[in-house]
Amino acid sequence: MYYFKYSPGFQFKDSTKPIELYQGSKKIGKIKRIYKNWFTQLLDTSILKNWFTAYEILDNNDDLKFKSKESSSFFGKQQYDVTYVDADQEIHSMILKDVRKFHFSPIVKFHYKNLQYTVTRKERLGWTEFSIEDQLIAQWKRMNISIPDEIEVQLVNEDYFDDIFLIVGVFHTFFYDWR
Known about the structure:
- It is a single chain.
- This protein is mostly beta strands.
- It has helices at residues 38-48, 164-175; strands at residues 2-6, 19-23, 26-33, 54-59, 64-70, 79-85, 91-98, 107-112, 115-121, 128-132, 135-143, 150-155.
- β4 and β5 (64-70) form a beta hairpin.
- The mean pLDDT is 81.
- InterPro entries: Tubby_C-like (IPR056944).
């Protein structure tokens, strides 16, 4: 099992300051919130609350590995358009959708390489699980017991090590700002 950690430090959730991603003491990349311009950032932080949410993950060479952008309608469930560059430098486009029936913890489903993936938050303070066809791949948890917050990712199935940026990106996009 592999552990990955990252900490937003003392910044606000809507900050555009990059958060560094680590595997042990080795930096593997960074994740950051992005906005098209200052006006969308102002709207997002003051009125619309995460309507223009978009994230990027860059590896240590500053190559784009993951990019998500909110694409929900005002009356629909939460949805993101994602571009992911895998270990073979192949570009994948996918849509992450919240498929929950009520407004409790999100259940996210998407297709990647012709397989359906599901991300589920089991309980409010518990682990969020990333699975494929009922097989657990990874878990994500915001560790609120430390100051500043620390976020931990456990890669349970080592076969998905090459897709760590996809896993972290999906977790962070859907659950980092979730209230």
